Please model this.
Amino acid sequence: MPDLENRLLELHSPDGQHTVVLRCKDGPSASSWFTAVHTNIAALLPHTLAHINAYLGATSAASTHPHLKHIGWLAEQVQLEGGRQQYKPVVMALTEKDILLFQAVPWSRESWSTPLLTHPLLATRLVHSGSARGSPAQGSDLVFATRTGTGRGIESHIFRVETHWDLSSWTRALVQGAHAAAELIKEVSIGCTLSRQDVRLTLHYEKGFTVTREQVDPAGGAVLFRYPYEKLRMSADDGIRNLYLDFGGPEGEMVFDLHSGPKPVVFVLHSFLSAKLTRMGLLT
Model:
């Protein structure tokens, strides 16, 4: 609905099925009402999270549902035919390990288990947070953008928020969530090929890189290489299946054939390094 005078407020039900449009007497009144409603919604967020986690049983050690850390409505940018863009409402929820997107607030345990999209926090980076036009301007949209490494390449999303408080809250939740996921998960490994030999490449949050000979034995194969993160001189990938690592050792540049897209491993590496640098006080 056109709102040339900025007098309208839209209220959407949690299930996304109902919308109420309120028209105020003027722009300042609409802004005042928006601020009042939004402030109360923000104040209720901790209670809402506690209620949802209790309903899902996420506070129980035996629960199969992840613990929610943050939730809220956003507007996601979608591409239309002809290159046009528009925003659609979505619900984003952050758990200890994942980003979940829903069409509306889930109303059952089953619907909580079937999000529209799931992205690992460990393989996701926040790449922009601020004005959509690159510099603050009156009336400019406030957005943040994410990039996730997947087996198909890099998947990008742009989300619009309503206020600077929303922007800072989501920015903080995503960055801190990725770092917390790094400390929680600690280790990621993948079977691959190095110099025509089946090996396993392991990235550990504390210990760095380990390359072992792949074996059927559960005890694992012999260690071929082990390097801390500080020894890494160069990392790159071909965007298809190969990961290149150079630690300055006598073996030279190592080429790992991952048999799938390398971006998830690359993004996990970046998350581990970012979390370690932040913990050391070198990043804020």
Q: What stands out?
A: The domain at 64-185 is CATH 2.30.29.30 (PH-domain like).
